User: Fold these one by one.
Assistant:
Number 1:
Amino acid sequence: MSAAGAPRLLVLAPLRLEALALGPGGRAGPAALAVERTGMGLAKAAGSARRLSAAATPPAAVVVAGLGGALAPGLVPGDVVVAERLIDAQGHEVARLASAALLVGELQRKGIRARLGTVVSTDHIVTGNERATLSALGADVVDMESTALAKLDWGAPLAVLRAVSDSPGVELFSPAGALGALKGLRSLRRARPALADWAAAAGPRQVLLAEPRSFCAGVLRAIETVERALQRYGPPVYVRRQIVHNAHVVSRLESAGAVFVEELAEVPDGARVVFSAHGVGTSVNEEARRRQMSTIDATCPLVSKVHNEARRFAAAGRQLVLIGHAGHDEVEGTLGTVPGTRLVSTPDDIAHLELDETKPTAFVTQTTLATDEVTTVIGALEERFVDLARPAASDICYASQNRQEAVREMAPDCDVVIVVGSLNSSNSNRLVEVARRSGARAHLVDSKTDLQLSWLAGARRIGVTAGASAPPELVQEVVDCLAGLGSISIEERSTGRENVSFPLPSEVR
Ligand code: SF4
């Protein structure tokens, strides 16, 4: 590697065959990529690392790649493990590689069987029972170079990737092992575009963190309700629908003993059941009563407020319109509270409403809509209906409004905005829309593994926020991932602090 012309990506491969598999081809020309052989074994790799890392101009990114032996069950020749952790043969941690998840996601999107894992480096080829010994240290794959190469400061982000050549029962020096090595080399070759993408996304950047973001008071209350119900009554505690719309929250509570169901038909008579934060319609409450279930209502008080308004408008003889998105749990609950309520989503829907425009009418809205989106729908309602009553205050909850306002302020300064939240989270989707309407590219990710390198290439200012149902630790993981791609500076962009809490349902207080 010449000091004057440092490549964008420096790939370190132990042996000639591995270096050949990883060599330039297709998109990666010699100016973008240099592949250096380090030699086999910890000592040779350490010597090569010293020589190569002394280059005056560091590359933008460094990847250690080659074949490795599988230790963990389920790995087969050709599978790729990207190291999030490197350990030595005694189990001591040598390095953590924060952006490994980004590379795994990219490899998977390119059709390669890849996963995150721990790589252990030894000073000899591992066979037979020794695989189990190393596996017991928590390692997924063994190699003979990575820890030596990762110990040096390359002045650039580092990734370590091993393609499985041999596994328990398929030893390296056997006909099946030779075939495994071939599969591994093929995977290394197929991995090159993802490595190029990883290098293209590497570099220093600024991260803007929107505040407020993540959990709201209604979500915290709902989660705590299930946790306390499990503590007080013991599992199983049934929960109708996702308690909040976040896959990580649901799976954590599931492992603690909560049983999530779609409908009460799946719950035994007399069992204990929690209603989710999104609320339920009258018929669900009636069925629970009829079947003598013990119910705990975790409906957010701000959703209950909308239900009460809807009942009041109906009792006053008004025909009722709900502004919301079809199929959402909250919308189903509100429609089920006042049967006959009409659902609209866009201004165009108003013209098609089969209602008498001369009769007293009222509207309520879903709590998690975008404020600017609702204004146009309300305008269309006002144009058509002569006597239109509206809620005393906006039904869009404080948490949705605050998170949207923070994104609206931050997005114009961002190359791209990352919103952490699950696909079925209404308020998270609205944050993406608000960011886009504010002129930024924006993407929704359930977790760090959904981040795509192509979004980050050339993006020097990245905004990060999270929907009201997304746990703060997922935001931290995204930020850590970005830090693994190069140095970051973090700036919080606050439009105000929240100080809202709701009392728990009496059954779990
Ligand atoms: S987003 Fe709003 S309505 Fe939904 S749980 Fe949070 S505070 Fe309640």
Number 2:
Amino acid sequence: MNIAILTGASAGLGKSFFRSVTARYPDLDAIWLIARREERLREMAAGSAVPTVVLPFDLTDSASYETLSARLAAEKPCVKMLINNAGLGQLDNVADSDWPTQSRMVDLNCRALTAVTTLALPYMAAGSFVLNVASIASFAPNARMTVYSSTKAYVLSFSKGLREELKAKKINVLAVCPGPMKTEFLEVADITGRSPMFKLLPYSDPDKVADRAVVLAAKGRAVYTPRLFFKFYRILAKLLPHSLIMKLCKT
Ligand SMILES: NC(=O)c1ccc[n+]([C@@H]2O[C@H](COP(=O)([O-])OP(=O)(O)OC[C@H]3O[C@@H](n4cnc5c(N)ncnc54)[C@H](OP(=O)(O)O)[C@@H]3O)[C@@H](O)[C@H]2O)c1
């Protein structure tokens, strides 16, 4: 049984991944959809050409890893692709925030991504891929999004290291590093109307980002940064001191 696992499937980029995967891989035996809002996942499942399994998990809760582990052990699928897309941000200085808000980003963006990947890997084979959603925020620290950018730096670093580990098994790992996209993320992170930088930056179309990322992950690419503007930023962030980058790119 060949399956895809997609986290953060109920909104934004996750829905775009769902459209891309079901269109490009109509022969999959199932796509497992993970997010908290079950109703939304059920609506997606109802209209899907690929059989769909709805897993309404809160990925910040360790119990969801136990349930996923048991389900994988029971069904022993071949996981053709794992798309770790679930994530959240928060625009605020750490000192003006509270620990549950700040640590939730670590729990979802890092801990859950690591747990789900580790659980899925034994069920992946040559030709499978892991696609991790990082961000342009992974290239350099961003004050006012300090924890978010740190979590995405983890995702990028984790993806590169894991890719090296899995080369011999012919399993690719791709990190996609998008700039801003008009999704619920902006409201959840309390960015809308509070960041001049987010008003200036060019936005990406989530459908295009997801589809290209799926294609490149299957082709064996390591990192995908949509838009020339952000490819240039990625190079700048490698060349310039991060103290300067943080002054130039204030969120
Ligand atoms: N939008 C941007 O500007 C932007 C830019 C760069 C990178 N990204 C990254 O892109 C990814 C997708 O974000 P998006 O823009 O599509 O945001 P979004 O519209 O807010 O979607 C986030 C998804 O994550 C799920 N999620 C949130 N908390 C969860 C939890 N505790 N357990 C399980 N699932 C959870 C949400 O579903 P439920 O609420 O139903 O659980 C939703 O499906 C994230 O990793 C984000 O960091 C976004």
